[in-house]
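User: Thanks for the earlier help. One more: Hydrolase. Can you show the sequence and predicted structure together?

Assistant: Of course, both are below.
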Amino acid sequence: MNTGGFGFNFGPGDDDDDDKSRREQNPFGPFGFGGADGSGGLGDMLSQFGQMLSGMGSSMNSPEGQGPVNYTLAERIARQQIGQAAPVRDQDTSAVEEAVRLAELWLDETTELPTAGGRVVAWNAEDWLTQTLPMWKRLVTPVAEHMNEAQLASLPEEAREMVGPMLQMMNQMSGMNFGMQLGNALGDLAKQALTGSDFGLPVAPTDVTALLPANITAAGGELEVPGQELMVYIAARESARQRLYHHVPWLVERLVSSVEEYAAGLVIDTSHIEEATRELNLESGDPAAIQDAMQRLQGMDLSPRISSRNAQAVSRLETLLALVEGWVEYVVTNAMGERIPSTGKMTEAWRRRRATGGSAEQAFAKIVGIELAAPKVAEAVELWRRVDVAVGQKRRDGVWDHPDLLPSAEHLDNSADFIDSLLDEGESDEFDREFAKLEELLREQDGQDDGDKNSGGDDVGR
């Protein structure tokens, strides 16, 4: 879990080491409270809270400022991060539409999933923020809600009793801190995003294929690839994702429900902090011992340990993201490899981008606060290639018909077992078809025999 994201770095600014250490000793620290002298008294907490409210204006009183995340504040900070985004020009819109049209035509040859249809649009960074924010809210809200609950549960009993009268106020402050962190993260991603569902996450509205031409131009500056080729390549990746999200109806909800499941099991463990402070013997009253203890505290990791009772949800997310991006990369490479010579170069650049921040796990860590291992996209690409060779394109894409048919995390490292299961299924299907033909033939023969008998009986009667 990302303790520097949607976790516990809730102070209003960058503290020095001493202030940070004092705050971590304060049982109210997770909610952002703490006196400047480390006393953590009620007066100091209220004073700090008043300072936090200063200048926040109407965002505190807006409907979206009352929940676990102050989304009004988040959006305002994100727009400040983005700055003045240039409007999308007509020629950019035309370029995006033409690139998507060509990409869709080529993808028709490499996948059984038809085009998603819908609208093709060109966005700037502000458009990306506005259009994707509803889905980010779906992903962020359950994590923030359960994080607040877990934080309260992790406090000592006496601290929880003190919190009671101030709970609403503290929740508002927590919502503001979440909002500030979310706003900074979204503003950063808006300037990086190349498409509506960039980072492999279905955050764009349903049936919208969106590209960000200004961001694409900036990203391709050092690539030495013609701009039109880069635009078609990125359009192909986005169009392939949209085919999946549109024609595999369970996929988007599966991703969202995995986040919700993980959030529902959040647990915060502070036992190591309590153990460390006990060993320091801070209650001795000896000034020299206390000074020594404070110096030792500065070198300790006193971050709360965050985990989930539903850790399998993270594994499911990692596997789904790998399978989606692996499938996209495979079908796009097949569609464009022989048509555009720079496809290999652009694919390698995309992989580097994914490794250095432009990836689903980075987006989740920054925005949702869930630490994912890097999805095994390269392994997924190889798995889809082997499946294609073994059972063909139609059977390959048919795997997406139901989540139970998909490869598991173990199959990413060992695809042979998964391919064997597909081959066994194919042999069984072929046997069933042949058996059905035999049964039909026998029924036809039985019908003919019955007809001959009836015909003979009529002759005797006459």
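User: Great, one quick takeaway?

Assistant: The chain has two domains: 17-310+337-352, 377-461.
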